[in-house]
Amino acid sequence: MGEFILKDMVRKLGLEDQFYIESAATSTEEIGNPVYPPARAELARHGIDCSGHHARQVKRSDYDNFDLIIATEDVHRRIMEERFFGGDPDNKIVLCMDLAGRPGEQIDDPWYTGRFEEVYGQLYDACEGIIEKYSNQFT
Question: Exposure of 103 by Cβ count < 10 A (0-12 exposed, 13-18 middle, 19+ buried)?
């Protein structure tokens, strides 16, 4: 959901030329699948389209290809640091809610909890923080 919330915000602000936004999973369960139906429904409630998306797994080259890598929780951060990237020498990996000014807050995967509306709100807040902090920084 975060990918599409941020893309929607960036588009509405006319900042498309400043951001390249893409999501990737740390696990393999959903690889190749479209956005999970309840997540798609939550996005649609906010007028956000996510059609055409298919999940992919994060890969080593992502570390070199992206300026910022966002983890929703500590577990995902550790997986990326250890398994995919071999650390975080450039300090590119940040926790999502740190960007919302709520350090240490984790985003529980709504696939397990069913709390898609709550997670939407957390992601929205983090996306606002991303735009505030990073617009004009990487251009």
Answer: exposed
Domain interval for residue 105: 2-134
Q: Given phi > 0 = left and psi -120 to 50 = alpha, else beta, which region is 65?
A: alpha
What is the tens place of the pLDDT at every residue in 52-93? Answer: 999 999 999 999 999 999 999 999 999 999 988 999 999 999
Its pTM stands at 0.93
The answer to the question of residue 139 being in a domain is no
* CATH code of the domain covering residue 56: 3.40.50.2300
Beta partners for 69?
93
Number of folded domains that form the chain: 1
What size, in residues, is the chain? Answer: 139
